[in-house]
Amino acid sequence: MLAIVLSRKNIKEFDQIISLYTRERGKVEVLAKGIKKIASKNSANLEVLSLAEVEIAEGKEIDHLTKVQSVKFFKNIYSDFDKIFIAGYAVKIADANILARERDARIFDLLTSFLEFLNSVEKANSLNLATGFIFKLWHCLGFSAPEEKYRIWLEGSWLAMNELNLSNHEQLKIHEIAKNFAIFNGGKIAAVWSITEKILSHGSDNVTF
Questions:
Q1: 85 shares a domain with 68
Q2: How confident is the model at residue 203 (pLDDT cuts 50, 70, 90)?
């Protein structure tokens, strides 16, 4: 089945827990044994943000990843710092807020379309795209936009959002509304927000890690 790689977490010496979002089963966490070994053939096919075809076997405590084949590596995202950051921010939010085993094809399509757009667009407006992603994801999770005037963020395309002609102040204001809307509705984004806000407010060239 097709899966978007959301995150990888080290356990033991050579193993990892891989968080995936699939159309068929929603979010799943699987054990990838030996994935950190130099000889592992699967590691390169499980890059975070990539699309892969996976096979999973049921386990007693956690399912096991048995086979993986790369379908698409979004190479243009990895060649641009701003794109890497906003894509990583989006999948972190998704991973933190989506419950396991709750299948929703809209979320799979949302993630896929977001990565496809970032991969194809010449320059990404990180702040507008982050705002749109939050509103769209929370809509899929069952929460409506707080006011009708924000529906453009639900119904607009990624291209339309990317090209919105808003001042930096306006972008920051609407993003703050989106962030607070998500947090009010149980969102877990504060942990990654401080560095994101710094980058989106002042530009990636002025940020040191």
A1: no
A2: low
Closest Cα partner for 121 from 176, 80, 69? 80
Tell me, yes or no, whether 131 and 194 share the same domain.
Answer: yes
Distance between CA 134 and CA 93 in Å, rounded?
A: 8
Same domain, 61 and 80: no
Q: Which residue in the block uniquely carries the two structure tokens 């809209």?
A: 106
pTM tops 0.85, yes or no: yes
In this structure, the strands spanning 26-32 and 51-57 are unpaired
Domain CATH code at residue 98 = 1.20.1440
Query: What end-to-end distance do the CA atoms of the chain give, in Å?
Result: 37
Q: Are 43 and 36 in contact (CB under 8 A)?
A: yes
* pLDDT per residue as tens digits for the range 108-129: 999 999 999 999 999 999 889 9
Same domain, yes or no, for 163 and 136? Answer: yes
Residue 27 has pLDDT above 90, yes or no: yes
**What total number of domains does the chain contain?**
2
